Each structure stands twice: as C-alpha cells, then as structure tokens.
C-alpha cells in the first residue's frame, strides 16, 4: 500500500459518502418533490396553466371553475400521492431494518392485502361506511395480517427467518386476495364502488378522505423518525441489539405499530400499491447508507416522488383514459427490482 | 467474590432442559474458555449469563445483583456479548458498526458525544481496523470482519466481554489473529473474557481458566494444565487421546488417537521421497 493511497476517508460504496452531504441532499430531494407536485397538478383533462394553479392554491376564487378543479380534484390527488408514497416507502424501510429481510415490504408481507380485504369487507357488509372508518378498517386488516404473518413465519425450528417470513406473507397475501376477489365478483355493487381502489389508485380521492387518513400517516412518519436510531441498532440482529442493551421487544412493538399506521393508512387511502416499499429503501440505502436516521426521511421524500411520478405516468400513458397507479407501479417496479437484484448479485 | 457468577442456574428452550441447577463462578480479569462437545450446553450457558436467554430457574449475578433486575443499558455498560457469526447489514461501514457499541452510553438526552467518538476511534485502533473504517463490513475478509465486531464490543467499554465461538468459520490464520487480539485485550486492558471455543488446544493455549461441560453439567474446571487430562478428554469428548506439552506454549496439547494412519510413521512416505518437487516433463 502506497503512502498516498492512505487518506481514504470517503465511502465510495454509497452516493453520498460524506455525512456533510446528507442534509443538502435531503433538501434537494424536497425541492425535486415540489417540482414533481407542480408538474402533476398542472396535468389533467382541462388545460390549466401554472399561473392559474398558483392562484388556485394561494388566491382561491370560488367562482372560477378551474380553481375548483384544482382545489377539489387535483390537490387532494397529489396530496394523497405524497402521503401514500411516503407512508409505503417508510413502512418498507422500517420492515426491512427490523426483519433484516431485503424483500420485506408491506405488499410482500401481506399487510397491504390484509388492509385491502378489511376495507372491501367493510364496504360489502356495511354498504356505504363513512369515509372516516376506511382508515380504521385499514388498520384492523393490516394489524391482523401482520400478526398472522409473524406467527406463521416464526413457527417451527429456528424462529423467524427472512425466508419464512416472506413465504408466510406471500401465502397470506394470495389467500386473502382470493377472498377479496371472491367478494368483488359476487357483489356487483361493492365492485363498482371500489373497483379502481383495489388496484391501487389515486383517482377520485376526495379531500375529506385525504384529511381523515393523513393524521394517522403523519403520526406513523413522525414515530418512525423517532425510533429510526433504534432500527439501525436492531438491524445488527436481535442478539447483538440485546447485548448492546436494547429492549428489542419494545422496539419491535413500537415499530410494528408504525408499520400498521403507515401501511394501513396508505391502503385505506389509495388501495394496495405494491413495490414502493420494496424499491425505495433499496435506492435510499444506495444513496445514504444504512443509518436509519437518514434512511427514514430520504425514504419518505423519494417514496412521495416515486408515487407522484408514477401517477403522472398513469394519467398520460393512455390518455384520455388513465391507469390505476398501482398498475403503473408494477410496470415500473418489477423491471426495476429485477435490475436491482441483478446489480446486487453482481457486487 | 467474583463479579460474574450463577447460582442454581437452570436453562431451557421450550421443553428441552439444557442446564439444570448449575453453580458457576467466572474468575475476574482472566480468560475463561467454555469447552465441550456439540450440544453440551456451552453456548446456551453463555446466552444464559449474558441475558440473551431467560433462566428457567436460579439466577445470574453481576457484583451480587441479579442481571435480570438491572436496567438493560446498565448491564450492557458492564458486560458485552458477541453472539456467534454475527452478520452486519449490507453497506454498514466498520466505523458505523463500531459506533453502535456506544449504544448503551446514549439516551434521548445524551446523543453522540466527543467521548463516544474518542472511544470508537480507540476501539478501531486497538483492533487494528482503522484503515478499513469507511469500508462496508461485508467487503472485509473473515478475520478483519471479526475484528470489527470485537471493536464494536470493545467500544461498549465493559469490563467483561463474552464471545460465542469467535473463531468459527475463520481460516486458521484468522483464528490465531482473533485469539491473539483477545489475549492482548485481557493482558493490556484487564478485560475479563469468557468465550465458547470449539478447539480444545486453542482453549488450552489461550485460556487461563477452562470449564469443560458435558450434558449440561460442569465436568471439570480450572487451569488448563491442571484439568486437561486424557481421562477428562475421554469423559467429556468421548475420544481417546494422548496429551503432550505444546511445543510453543508448553500448555497441554491434545492429540486424538482415532484410527486413521496409525503406525504409518514408519512408512517410507515420511522419509523425504514424496517431499521432493516433481519435475515437469
């Protein structure tokens, strides 16, 4: 080793190798997100220019039809995209850290399906439940699914392993989705009400539903940020974390509640959108590393950007028709994930 | 009175009783090795005395206090444990790993301090991994990786360090590297070290105190040169052996008898013929 090769105090395996770049990077991410939101809000069936968008947001005139479209149709839609994207990405990051499972995601571990099933069931049984109860049913479904998957995944010798947990999630997901489909096939009325929703969509989200769900997701996001340091420690493994003096049962419990709030809330709002929680944390770790104090906020911002862009794509790809954003995410997500897996294997 | 001891300790997994009513005293400031055949309960015992496994009965005392009654971080400041074959998350750097050792010294109010940074750097220095500080743990060699994990345990700044098979899965050169490091920590820093070891000869070389376990019971304990006898090895490991002085350290060297190659010493294979380099045609 030569003398000049010595000062290698830079980490070359992540994009932001120096800690000094982390905060500016996050600010750039937020600016990028705002630009994406503006882009998204100007897009739609009616041609509305940027100036009108600005006026509608900051100098609302209720006699203007265009302003009304912005305020009642487009704004709730982009807001829903932001909180759903942030929620799914952060819940994925927390789950991946907690279970040390790179494939952990609320979609793969069956939590989205559980939440979706509970909401469909509620609509089927109650007819037309008030919007405020959607989130509630989402949490119930997400919680029960999380408990079932964890119980299934920790059965047998050796306790919970990433593989067993993933399999349990996939099995539960398939099982529960079959029931959801059965209900929808058998009941035309329920199907009509939430057909788009079950594929994961931001279309037609109205402000009251967004406002009903947002507080839970904000609590989930804030809570995730608070426990992020604990997630870094527990990601070293249960025994190591215990040896360091962490109360791992407590951390797992709190983290599980955050995941249920985030995933359950996101599903209640937009239906089960896959791949966001799977992909975003991987990309984020590639940028900032594995310190969850940074992984969590970066995931929130990148998740919001991803869903916003995917929703724009969903609206322009087969104009004037539109695709559910969940379908769009699958188009983008599946190849991206394959690419990610291949790239990781190569390393 | 020893800092760390156990009384009437009973350890079990679900319905499998592993250790029953064990009395154990870990000598202070020494290297203690737990040895025994697979499944004898040595790793379970280590888990029991490090609070990774809750005892079914009895208790583990650290300075006369029950370790299950101490706050978790308080215990972690006094007793560090490195489990067997730990795996770091992909991309975690050595510095980040070692910094995690400061976890028990931090709280909501007391976040990262200059003191934490100083001790982290010291741990990197002592274990000789400073030059890899910014490299991901998963890109290091087995020996470097294990040294990084030991550095993390060291940054915990506890008087007692427990290690579960710290040399398993390592090449021989790395095994010696790791054991030499632990020896150094004991001699120069006065750390009390307790480790589960697979290799009886390494245990004899590096341990001041040896605890031989069989069937969940302590079969013999004491200084290796006093307790390791042909009888003990037969009783504990179920194998016939010869014990000769280790030519390097003069500690007991266990040479299993077994069946293979017995008497071949007199065959011409060792008279040098086969050792000659083969000429290429």
Fold and architecture overview:
The complex is a heterodimer of chains A (about 350) and B (about 280). In chain A, α1 packs antiparallel against α3 (about 65-100), α5 crosses α6 (about 160-185) and α8 runs antiparallel to α13 (about 290-315). In chain A, about 75% of the residues lie in helices and about 0% in strands. With about 350 residues, chain A is mainly alpha-helical. The longest helix of chain A is centred in the first third of the chain and has 35 residues, at about 65-100. Chain B has about 280 residues and is an alpha/beta fold. Helix content of chain B is about 30%, strand content about 25%. Chain B contains nine helices and twelve strands. In chain B, α3 packs parallel to α5. Chain B is globular. Chain B starts with a strand and ends in a 25-residue tail after the last strand. The interface of A and B includes residues 10, 14, 236, 290 and 344 of A.
Secondary structure blueprint with pairings:
The complex is a heterodimer of chains A (347) and B (281).
Chain A: H1 22-42, H2 50-58, H3 65-99, H4 111-126, H5 132-153, H6 162-186, H7 188-198, H8 207-226, H9 228-234, H10 238-243, H11 248-270, H12 276-288, H13 292-316, H14 325-346
Chain B: E1 4-13, E2 16-26, E3 31-35, H1 42-49, E4 57-62, E5 65-66, H2 72-78, E6 79-82, H3 94-100, H4 114-126, H5 142-155, E7 160-164, H6 172-189, E8 192-196, H7 200-206, E9 209-214, E10 217-222, H8 224-227, H9 230-237, E11 241-245, E12 252-256
Parallel strand pairs in B: 3-8, 3-9, 6-7, 7-8
Antiparallel strand pairs in B: 1-2, 1-4, 4-5, 9-10, 11-12
Helix pairs in contact in B: 3-5, 4-5, 5-6
